[in-house]
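re: the backbone from monday

yeah here it is again, tokenized this time
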């Protein structure tokens, strides 16, 4: 039987984000033929039927009216399956017909959303056959959502968008409206190219551990809601589950009983969720249990779960975020940046084929500016995924505008072996791109309406890691704001670009300088506190004194971290003379008078960027205010309100940082501006 699956209804008051009804007008006012069968084809049918009902078009399913003429054909055909893969599609337009051909159902779904993105352009002129295929097979969002409200971290760890879409006060959200919203979320994500979600926090607390066993039904309900949009569900599990849930005396990965336990439990997971994606594991990290307890390696740990998942074609995502979070700040020989490489690079080649090592893009922890993690270039015989953070823990917590597309793109395009070698995007083909999600039950999904751009870009950059992030931003602007339907499309487009394009660099200017990182308030990580983590056990220091600042990570005189890179980077980062300015203090401890490659001294750079950063926020706030007549009023007001907070906070950052370094160094601002 083939029947359309109706488009989920957006609960009232919830923002349609990048899928407003109007985006479906070009498609919905045409005649469409859908050919093929399967549940996702029914989803595609539902999408076109919904659009056609609204805009007066027509949709027919194959065989209903042979010989009629169509404007759009969406077809499943297996002729080109090698070329198209499961998720790719071909697009061609000839003789007045736009044709999307896919070999797999997901491909057809992505083809449909591509037509939506193209808008009227999909139905004009001729178009030579284009092949669209994702570069990365796994494009995933990790939710750091707790089931029960955590006493410190709340419902969503590092969440700035209200509550969880999946969980509330200890239970799964299960009302019709709540599940409808989960479907809407899946739909938005599919339209951006996402195909997997991990539904719970990698810090697996007591209640959450049970999702694996007696509460798997709750996960299955989420999986059911996401499946029509081609999204597979993954679960974060505790390495200690055999002890905590199974009552075994050990979780040792080499213990037979432990292996049997995982095999059996995993079998039951697949009974509940036949297309379950697999496990995500944070082990031996920030208090989570792991194989070190039993004297086993992380490959042995990961392979335990990989073995349990293999018969079902599941994957274990094993996180490389392993470091000593109880280090002594007095001990200058320990360098947190080294930790992932030191732990994992020696294990290259030891992981099972269905184990993916998930590596944060930088060696520290999602700071505003970090070099690319050296792990990514050092494990050619391991399936790697790169992890980025859409939730803006260290980039303004969705109270500040910080468009992260350029930052992620720089990381994905970085070439660990130099210009001749593969990019990060190439190196993670086996594992994919994973982003910590920024979405919650907030009416705008992401708290700040402009933070939706980041969520959208995750899927688009995972689809094509070498894409220009500006193209993703343009798509998001066109879909979300429909400039053509406003009184002044050009002013709206240029205004949005003005406030978003450079916002990451603006944020960088008024926060921690030159790649040194942190300087945030401990715990919640919002707002400045220069020494907040300086004498803490977390390994995140800047070492500022009266003479200079920065972390010496050179091989010659420092922690040796620079030597974890291959050439040319090991050499580039080794010397302050060749190290890029923006990373200088990540790699070197220099005097305040050190002259940057820009020609400015470090101390003057700190003053200048902090004054400039605030001026740029003032300007962005002014530009945004000037768009009031072109943006939906509630959305405009929400962002306008957040600009007030961003400006207050940027000024606070400026004054903390400038005053701190003036007091430390005694060097006055060459331009005589007010430093308190
Ligand atoms: O950045 C740190 C966060 C933690 C997080 C951890 C991780 C989920 O502050 O909240 O824990 O990273 O990535 O595991």
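seq for it, each position gets an aa:
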């Amino acid at each position: 039987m083939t029947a359309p699956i109706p488009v989920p209804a957006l609960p009232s008051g919830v923002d349609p984000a990048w899928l407003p009804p109007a985006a479906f007008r070009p498609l919905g006012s045409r005649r469409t033929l859908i050919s093929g069968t399967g549940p996702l084809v029914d989803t595609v049918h539902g999408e076109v039927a919904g659009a056609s009902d609204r805009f007066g078009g027509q949709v027919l399913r194959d065989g209903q009216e042979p010989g009629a003429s169509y404007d759009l054909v969406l077809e499943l055909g297996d002729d080109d399956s090698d070329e198209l893969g499961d998720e790719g599609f071909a697009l061609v337009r000839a003789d007045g017909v736009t044709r999307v051909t896919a070999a797999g159902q997901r491909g057809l779904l992505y083809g449909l959303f591509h037509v939506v993105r193209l808008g009227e352009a999909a139905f004009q002129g001729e178009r030579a056959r284009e092949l669209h295929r994702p570069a990365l097979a796994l494009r995933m969002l990790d939710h750091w959502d707790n089931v029960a409200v955590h006493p410190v971290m709340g419902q969503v760890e590092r969440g700035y968008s209200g509550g969880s879409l999946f969980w509330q006060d200890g239970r799964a959200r299960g009302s019709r409206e709540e599940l409808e919203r989960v479907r809407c979320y899946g739909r938005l994500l599919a339209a951006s190219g996402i195909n997997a979600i991990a539904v719970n926090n990698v810090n697996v607390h007591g209640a959450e551990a049970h999702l694996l066993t007696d509460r798997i039904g709750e996960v299955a309900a989420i999986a059911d809601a996401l499946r029509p949009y081609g999204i597979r569900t993954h679960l974060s599990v505790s390495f200690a589950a055999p002890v905590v849930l199974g009552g075994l005396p050990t979780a040792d990965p080499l213990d037979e009983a432990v292996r049997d336990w995982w095999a059996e439990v995993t079998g039951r997971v697949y009974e509940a969720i036949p297309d379950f994606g697999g496990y995500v594991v944070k082990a031996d990290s920030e208090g989570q249990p792991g194989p070190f307890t039993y004297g086993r390696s992380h490959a042995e740990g990961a392979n335990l779960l990989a073995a349990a998942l293999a018969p079902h074609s599941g994957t274990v995502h094993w996180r490389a975020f392993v470091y000593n979070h109880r280090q002594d700040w007095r001990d200058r020989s320990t360098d947190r940046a080294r930790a992932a490489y030191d732990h994992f690079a020696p294990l290259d080649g030891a992981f099972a084929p269905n184990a993916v090592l998930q590596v944060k893009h930088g060696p520290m922890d999602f700071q505003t500016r970090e070099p690319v993690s050296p792990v990514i270039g050092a494990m050619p015989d391991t399936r790697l995924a790169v992890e980025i953070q859409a939730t803006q823990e260290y980039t303004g917590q969705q109270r500040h505008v910080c468009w992260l597309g350029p930052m992620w793109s720089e990381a994905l395009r970085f070439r660990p072996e130099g210009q001749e070698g593969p990019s990060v995007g190439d190196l993670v083909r086996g594992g994919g791109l994973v982003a910590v999600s920024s979405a919650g039950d907030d009416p705008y999904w992401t708290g700040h309406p402009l933070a939706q751009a980041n969520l959208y870009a995750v899927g688009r950059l995972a689809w094509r890691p070498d894409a220009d992030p500006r193209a993703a931003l343009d798509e998001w602007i066109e879909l979300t704001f429909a400039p053509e339907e406003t009184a002044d499309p050009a002013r709206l487009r240029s205004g949005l670009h003005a406030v978003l394009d450079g916002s990451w660099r603006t944020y960088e200017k008024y926060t921690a300088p030159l790649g040194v990182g942190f300087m945030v308030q401990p715990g919640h990580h919002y707002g400045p506190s220069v020494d907040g983590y300086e004498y803490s056990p977390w390994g995140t220091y800047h070492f500022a004194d009266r003479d200079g600042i920065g972390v010496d990570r050179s091989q010659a005189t420092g922690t040796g971290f620079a030597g974890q890179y291959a050439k040319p980077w090991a050499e580039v980062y080794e010397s302050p003379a060749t190290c890029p300015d923006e990373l200088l203090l990540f790699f070197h401890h220099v005097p305040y008078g050190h002259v940057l490659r820009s020609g400015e001294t470090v101390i003057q750079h700190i003053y200048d960027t902090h004054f400039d950063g605030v001026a740029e926020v003032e300007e962005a706030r002014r530009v945004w205010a000037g768009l009031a007549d072109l943006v939906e009023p509630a959305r405009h007001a929400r962002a306008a309100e957040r600009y007030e907070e961003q400006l207050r906070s940027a000024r606070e950052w400026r004054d903390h940082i400038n005053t701190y370094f003036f007091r430390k160094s005694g060097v006055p601002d060459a331009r005589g501006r007010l430093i308190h």
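The mean pLDDT is 97. DSSP finds 21 helices and 20 strands in the chain.
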